[in-house]
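Q: Could you fold this chain for me?
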Amino acid sequence: MTTVAIETAPALDLSGQRPLGTVLVTGAASGLGAAVARAVDAAGGTPIALDRDPVAAFESHTVDLADSAAARAAVAPIAARGIDAVVTAAGVDVPGPFGEVDPDEWERVVRVNLFGTAAVLRAAFPSLLERRGRIVTVASTLGHRSAGDASAYCASKAGVVGLTRALTAECKGEIGITLLTPGGMRTRFFDGRTPQYQPAPDAPLCDPADVADAVVFALTRPVGCEIKELVVAGPYESSWP
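A: Sure. Below is the predicted structure, expressed as structure tokens.
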């Protein structure tokens, strides 16, 4: 009988990973933001939460991201201490026909999702530039493909896509930037909606913990390697491609 030697693959060497350091996470009180904060902590980083609601598990700062000036003021003292990465996971939506959604609520969606993202990044920029840090912005499949009754959300997330790609071009070699596009996730994002704007009970949505793992992967790529864009969605995601 002939014996065939099977060569086993060497163990994966993770020693070259970039350390996480201090990671500012917006929207960290729930959903993807909370999952990212937990994943950062589990991977040896130090998450700092930024949300309207306090987060007991980690250092937490409360702020309404619809107020850009307040967002910048909240981030500035954190940046003075040092920020190695920012993950902008905060996001809101008020679905409905364009002519029926209250104009103030419509604009609040854009302020939180787009202007809030820009305000946090602006305040964190000096520290990120000094440390050659990393950014993960959270867009949405609806930032690439629009849907009816979601005009504010689509506009805000398309803005995040454009902002991120512009900053990627602007900050080459200075800050590593990843555009994360997640599909539907099992979070409280859909709570309080009327049934037509909720996923079916058996919808195959992603676990936010799995998406958070992808965020940590992007943040820990070694110097000289960056994940520019990521799409993380279930195999039956209806809004992608």
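A (continued): The chain has a mean pLDDT of 91.
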